[in-house]
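Researcher: Good morning. I'm working through a list of sequences from a screen, and I'd like to move beyond sequence-only analysis. For each chain I'm collecting a predicted structure so we can compare shapes side by side. This is the next one on the list. No need for commentary yet; just the structure.
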Amino acid sequence: DAGTFSPFEHGEVFVLDDGGEVDLDLGNYERFLDVTLHRDNNITTGKIYEHVIQKERRGDYLGKTVQVVPHVTDAIQEWVERVAQIPVDGNDAKKKPEICIIELGGTVGDIESMPFVEAFRQFQFRVGHDNFCVVHVSLVPQLHA
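Model: Good morning. Structure tokens for this chain:
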């Protein structure tokens, strides 16, 4: 929940037009790309687990043991597919986006991000290799003598 982030660790909170509180990165994307994002554009582990628990309580899994793979990874992929169809162009509220950019934040390799890494590994097969691209961005420090 970005509203409870420590600004010393995570920076400022950005508030979206619909009242959603998100990481400042999402706010920078919104301003830089000149789009209007919504609270569902911010996917978090907590939101995914809450969604999976609600599905389990409704009986959607028919009493099966809920597991990270496939239940959590499927929930992540379904969330992305759903949100990718939500218009973000303030000038044309009916126009579906042509692409969906996803930032997998944090430190890849931390156990907390592993369900997302696996979900996106699977996602390329779900949408096809020609419809999916992974870009790794990292700080490369330069040491000067």
